[in-house]
Amino acid sequence: MAKPKHSLDLGEQLCFSLYTAQRLVTAAYRPILDALGLTYSQYVAMLALWESAPMTMGELGTRLGLDYGTVTPLVKRLESAGLVARTRSTEDERTVHVTLTDAGVDLRARAVGIPDSIADVMALEPGEFATLKESLEHLSANVAGSA
């Protein structure tokens, strides 16, 4: 009988390494984001909006890789916090536009140091950072393509 190509040892599972890294990185963000009143999910939504607002809920979901049912409560919480506003399209009432409020725009200035703070925690050289990011993007594309 042929030996399996990959073992079931926990320490050899790429998925466990990814899970552990994701959990630790997200935990590193928590105290920084708590000071801004944001969760990690809200932070990445704000990053997308700071980059390209206004956008539709569908565009935001696509940008974040989330379905409409996940984006809606996320945006509702940002709206309740006064950071974004939602408006229905006059051309197609099924389309909802998300715009930044003044408070949402102002929050960007308070968040500008976050990437450097997290980079310090990660302690990766610029080349290591770029290689890891590229590898993760390649992995994501491969897995998305096989689904």
TrEMBL record:
It is found in: Cytoplasm. This is MarR family transcriptional regulator. Its main location: cytoplasm. Pfam families: MarR. Residues 11-141 form the HTH marR-type domain. SUPFAM superfamilies: Winged helix' DNA-binding domain. InterPro entries: ArsR-like_HTH, HTH_MarR-typ, MarR/SlyA-like, WH-like_DNA-bd_sf, WH_DNA-bd_sf. PROSITE patterns: HTH_MARR_2 (PS50995).
